[in-house]
Amino acid sequence: MRFVVVLLAAILIGCGGSASTAAGSPSPVVVAPSTASAPPATPSPTATGPKVPISPVPTPSSSGTQASTCVTHTLAGLTEAQRIGQLFMIGLAKDKLGTAERSAIATYHFGSVSFTTKTSIGVAGVRAITDAVQARATTAATGRVRFFVAANQEGGLVQALSGPGFDTIPSALSQGALSTSTLRTRAARWGAQLRAAGVNLDLAPVADVVPPGTDATNAPIGQLKREFGHTPSTVASHVTAFIGGMQKAGVATTAKHFPGLGRVVGNTDVTTSVTDTVTTVTDPYLQPFASAIDVGVPVVMVSLATYERIDRNHLAVFSRAVIGGLLHDKLGFRGVVASDSLGATAVKAFTPAARAIDFLNAGGDLIIVNELSVADPMATAIAARVATDAAFRTRVDAAILKILAAKRAAGLLACAG
After folding, report:
1. For a 10 Å CB count at each end of the chain, is N or C smaller?
2. Model pTM score
């Protein structure tokens, strides 16, 4: 999957940093003390604020010409509404493709879906659902672009899919006690099960590091044993092993929750104003994310917390400093930047329009939101902004190009072979 990074660098230069670092190792992550004082965070999106500087949508280059031609050809064949739909991953309520989801895909052309709750119907049962989803990838709905179908298949308490054909996956903390070669082999097996079920994107692995002795006070990760370990090196080695195993099975992965939820107290799913007062742009706890990028992880998910030493005024998911400055420029990531759920409690004080537009303007690409009641007005707001703002339209098209490039690598475009 390392070629994914090279491909994206070739076709997406100008979308957050220089192409020269895309395929190489990320910048070294070293500790640098910060003396900045940290007043209370005020993470308020500003949908009318300045735009992210961005180059025009690029044309295919001589490097990876066939792949980039496939991607740009696909983009050119989509209607404006279909393009906007590719920006979204919606939830399957009660893990079913219901009437509401079918209608939303037809009306708003949403291009990716995810399982939202735990199900024990097994591989065959899940496959029936994923086949039904892919059958919606029609010319009218998605321009024949197939769906990313995702699940939170981490292990332990966070294993969305179980039942006949699925292994019971141990927690990430238990996986971290395995040798990396053993974990890679097992992740390949778990990935093959996902592939058999028609799931092509795992919303894992967790790349967060929880400091030793703090699991009990870290609600989102430590209390649930979602971390691979308590040091950056342990987490980094096991993150890359997990990604490698999934890659072997043909399943895309998601490193989360950038730039880390291991040193916060509250859970952004159910809590507002979650703040990290420690992480800096040169923090050693970024190592697992840097390692994931180095081995070609196609998706990085950005958290809904505020990082006072990076950008005290915005949630990470709305922060140009976090996404554009740190993830794109410093760590050299050229893949798909996904949001953590934009239906979570942490962002409910903001309108759907502000959530979507400010995430995109910060450099984000894939909007993950389970609730159609939130996704529908987001799509409407993006369409209205695109119609009147040429710079924003360019930003949107650049995000769609990255999503389509990841889908091409996953064999989800008609021209992908």
Report:
1. C
2. 0.86
